Amino acid sequence: MRTSARLLAVLLLLVLATAWAAAGAPAETVGELAVLTPDEKPAELLGAYLVRKCDKLLDARREEVQSLETPEAVRERIERIRKSWSDALGPFPERGPLNGKTLGAIQAEGYRIERVLYESRPGHHVTGNLYVPAGKGPFPGVLVPCGHSANGKASEAYQSICILLARHGFVALIYDPIGQGERYQLLDESGKPIAGGTGEHTLTDIGARLTGTGAANYRIWDGIRSLDYLISRPEVDPERIGCTGNSGGGTLTAYLMATDDRILAAAPSCYITSLSRLFNTIGPQDGEQNITAQVALGIDHADYVTMRAPKPTLIVTATHDFFDIGGSWDSFREAKRLYGVLGLGERVDLFEYPDKHGFSQPRREAVVRFMRRWLQGIDDAATEPEPAIQTDAALQVTASGQVVKEFGDRTVWDLNLERAKELAPQREAFWRDRARDACLAEVRRLAGIRPIAAKPVARSVGVVKREGYTIEKIRIERQGEPPVPALVFLPTVRQGKLPAVLYVDGRGKQRGAAAGGPIEALVREGRAVLAIDVRGTGETAPRQSRDKPAFLGIHLGRPLPGQRTEDVLAALHVLLGREEIDPGHVRLIGIERGGPVALHAAALDERFTELVIDGAIESWMDVVATPRGQQQLEQIVAKALERYDLPDLVRAIAPRPVRVLDPVDPTGKAKGGQG
Predict the structure, then answer these.
(1) Residue 639 belongs to a domain with what CATH number?
(2) Contact at 8 Å (CB) between 167 and 138?
(3) pLDDT value of residue 631
(4) pLDDT confidence of residue 533
(5) pLDDT at position 545, please?
(6) Beta partners for 325?
(7) What is the domain extent for residue 154?
């Protein structure tokens, strides 16, 4: 067959593959070709594996911490963890002018509420309410990052804590996080939020993580700049600063108290547990609550407290919280013991109340009593009278209700894209100035792709016979790794060694496996085909959130694209170990989510003689530029754009041929707007 005819045949097969994949696999094919048994709970295999890996590292961390028995050893670990924490968060921008403004005030009994506006970055506004006590200051100041309330700072519980603080002589600043209140970043044509809250936080996290930061970096920087604004106020004593927040605000309080030394007293509410208990109960949460390689770096919730030694911290909890109370006590005991080694045991405490998640009155009163003790020198109860709750409209800072509409703000996606473009010359220089092997070693490191040390084992679990070919059902096993379900398609009649195809469809191997489908067409062309389900796809696809396994991989420093690349490389070992296969002719096909995975595998292993990518994203720059990407978290590598993008891998594969067919944008639509 001439080259042009052969290429036409390949293109026809891949068009068929796309059509079959879109239609899905017939139900009878799914059952007939299943490799794993229901007793194995295939949909839970990946999540359980990742939790085990996290627990193993967290157990090792716990043993290390338990061995610390001298102040010197404790301080050494604190310094090491502080550096790891800073590196994991990524760089913060330069401070610019706050351009703070007060746009109105409400006079209340014993305090006033100012509607304030400032910029955490140029052209990126923060809306807040400043609660100022009556009387002559300066007063201690308390920053109140709010939780995941749709109306942000106007939530009744968050108004209540600010009022209680103001009535007890504190200036309290509460501000809207991105994706809440007046700071939704993604609006529809009518000006209403499209995602919001935790959903928007995860969407903003994807592009940020690719460029070396993350949603947490943006959230922490907003908090740091809010502290700058709070301290700039003449009513505030900059030496007496506290921070408290609940739920998502508890997350931010924990992050800020570990990051900003200006916070003297801190009281995170309904957040502190332990990562092990979190992962074994509700699992990882939204974007900003997952720090790159946090578990691999040995940073647990207790470290948020110990990193700030010798400053005082109150861990505020609810007995029936979905953030596990057992983990809260574990973290408290650890932090209390290490503070004790430093001679400061009284500076860590825990308050528990027998109710559910939320900034309820008992927790608010406990927080204010704690702040009075450490910031006012008064150890006395703080009793909350009925708070005078304001309407959302009364507390609104902007006329339109949204900073993006009001000021045409630079959104987080704008900022992510700016950073990605700034990194482009750095990426170009990286590949230009280094040998190919050195560049690919860095790809391995960032993607967490380990060498396939032990030979994978292929276990046959059955054979299906069809006209003209057979399908062997196998499990590809590596010690300590989840099994990879696979199908080996072989022509019944064959002469000599067969050219081979390793077939990776991101939606599952059975998409193209039905009689008359694209895999059959490849077999009838005289090829052997090994079709696999890389982890978290096909038989092992999670039934619920796809983000949770992705976040667990990020915690381990082993993002899912890297883990899936290992599955492909292990499958290549198995394929080349079969006597029917011609090792000089191995085509790798990556479809949809299998595309970036196949691209990594082909770049790292030259035994793949050609690569075809079909229906996949072309570039992570596209992902950064697309606010509403679909299921992109499982396709990214944290900090990748500091060193490489997917087109760099295409170039690294040369001179081996690479064909890219029907690329899609991050929303899943065909490039050019059709799909």
Answers:
(1) 3.40.50.1820
(2) no
(3) 86
(4) 99
(5) 87
(6) none
(7) 102-410
Per-residue pLDDT reduced to its tens digit, 592-647? 999 999 999 999 999 999 999 999 999 999 999 999 888 899 999 999 999 999 99
Beta bridge partners of 317: 352
Q: 357, 391, 410 — which closes off a domain?
A: 410
Quote the CA–CA distance of 662 and 538 in Å, as a whole number: 22
| Res. 674 pLDDT band, cuts 50 70 90 | very low
Asked, for residue 666, whether it belongs to a domain, the answer is no
Distance CA 256, CA 271 (A): 13
- Number of structural domains the chain divides into: 2
Establish if 667 belongs to a structural domain. no
pLDDT at 34 over 60: yes
Distance of CA 241 to the CA centre of its chain: 30
Q: Which residues contact 224 (CB under 8 A, 6 or more apart)?
A: 92, 256, 259, 260
Contact 153, 128 (CB under 8 A): yes
Query: How confident is the model over 203-215, as a mean pLDDT?
Result: 97
Residue length, the chain?
675
> Is residue 262 included in any domain, yes or no?
yes
In the structure encoding, which two tokens stand for residue 393, read together?
Answer: 């409209």
> How does pLDDT run across 436-494, given as a tens digit for each residue?
999 999 999 999 999 998 899 999 999 999 999 999 999 999 999 999 999 999 999 98
**Residue 313 shares a structural domain with residue 443:** no
- Residues forming a β-bridge with 488: 472, 530
Task: Mark whether 131 and 26 lie in a shared domain.
Answer: no
Q: How confident is the model at residue 29 (pLDDT cuts 50, 70, 90)?
A: low
In sequence order, the β-bridge partners of residue 591 are 505, 614
Is 208 in the same domain as 307? yes
The distance of Cα 289 from the centroid of its chain, to the nearest Å, equals: 8
The amino acid at 292: T
Residue 14 has pLDDT above 70, yes or no: no
Q: Which H, E and C letters describe 639-653, residue by residue?
A: CHHHCCCHHHHHHHH
Distance CA(636)–CA(554), nearest Å, equals 10
Helix (H) / strand (E) containing 316? strand 313-318
Number of H helices, E strands in the chain: 22, 17
Alpha-carbon span 241 to 415, nearest angstrom? 30
3-state secondary structure of 254: helix
Distance CA 78, CA 59 (A): 18
Strand partners, 143: 173, 243
**Nearest Cα residue to 652 out of 432, 449, 451:** 432
pTM, rounded to two decimals: 0.94
* Residue 219 in tokens: 């959230």
List, in sequence order, every residue forming a beta bridge with 531; answer none if it has no partner.
487, 503
431, part of any domain: no
Residue 544: strand, helix, or coil: coil
| Structure-token pair, residue 299 | 């940073």
45 and 143 housed in the same domain: no
Residue holding tokens 């690719």? 210
Q: What residues contact 493, with CB distance under 8 A and at least 6 apart?
A: 468
Q: 């667990």: which residue's tokens?
A: 552
**How many angstroms separate the CA atoms of 253 and 555, rounded?**
20
